[in-house]
Amino acid sequence: RKEVEQDPGPFNVPEGATVAFNCTYSNSASQSFFWYRQDCRKEPKLLMSVYSSGNEDGRFTAQLNRASQYISLLIRDSKLSDSATYLCVVNLGTGGFKTIFGAGTRLFVKA
Amino acid sequence: NAGVTQTPKFQVLKTGQSMTLQCAQDMNHNSMYWYRQDPGMGLRLIYYSASEGTTDKGEVPNGYNVSRLNKREFSLRLESAAPSQTSVYFCASSEVATVGYEQFFGPGTRLTVL
User: Fold this and answer.
1) Pick from A8, A97, A102: which is nearest to B50 by CB?
2) With contact defined as beta carbons under 8 Å apart, do A38 and A85 qualify?
3) Peptide bond into B8 cis (omega under 30)
4) What do you get for the CA distance between the two ends of chain A, in Å?
5) Given a cut of 80, is residue B66 above it in pLDDT?
6) Does residue B19 register a pLDDT over 70?
7) Residue A34 Rama label (left phi>0; alpha psi -120 to 50; beta)
8) Taking a C-beta distance cutoff of 8 angstroms, is the pair B74, B34 a contact?
9) Which residue of A has its CA nearest to B35?
């Protein structure tokens, strides 16, 4: 089982739609969580951190469910510019450094 | 500020050739990383340097070596390239190598080994 699993998609949605992505992680020692965005043939960039209480940044809402070990990202009122791959990222709190990247979920927003 | 820069952007090697990928950051970050990204897989950590003067293996270190030249620069060397090393390589940096800190990525190097 992969340490971080995401539905690869692609998700094809019309402009204005609401779309949600889920991500599951296997290690209960995971301590911090992020969503990164990666445009085609570009580098990943931080979209938002994910906090235990849930957090929102404009049209984007992230939720964390530690009991079920999953993270979600909700995008409201999708824009063409939201088309990208969304990477779920988990930091482990064990000794040493360990960040696990999911393989990503592809989103296409169409006019 | 340029952020994280990488050279070269593209490279084609023949099996057995060697090369060094260069990475530099101007954000005064302590920690730097090298990842590879292959289709259908998440980024995988090759090596990282938590601070100047230290380097540690990541998930997939075989076939690679690194040098933390100074606080700004972290290079990745392929001593004898193999087709399995065809990938996109990303360098990243963060303030520290501790949970919760954002990583900033360079634009990547697309490497093909024939």
Assistant:
1) A97
2) yes
3) yes
4) 37
5) yes
6) yes
7) beta
8) yes
9) A101
DSSP-derived 3-state class of residue B23: strand
Asked if the Cβ–Cβ distance from B90 to A100 is below 8 Å, we say no
Encode burial over B52-86: b for 16+ CB neighbours within 10 A, e otherwise. eeebeebebbeebebebeebbbbbbebeebeeebb
- Residue pLDDT, tens place only, B75-103: 999 999 999 999 999 999 998 877 778 89
d(CA B66, CA A11): 38
Residue type, B96: V
Rounded to a whole number, what is the distance in Å from the CA of B18 to chain A's nearest CA? 24
Interchain contact, A43 vs B90, CB within 8 Å: yes
- Peptide bond before residue B107 is cis, with ω within 30 degrees of 0: no
Q: Distance between CA atoms of A36 and B72, rounded to whole angstroms?
A: 24
- B82 CA: distance to closest CA in chain A (Å): 23
Nearest-CA residue of chain A relative to B110? Answer: A41
Residue with tokens 């409201």: A76
For residue A81, list its beta bridge partners. Answer: none
pLDDT of B4 reads 98
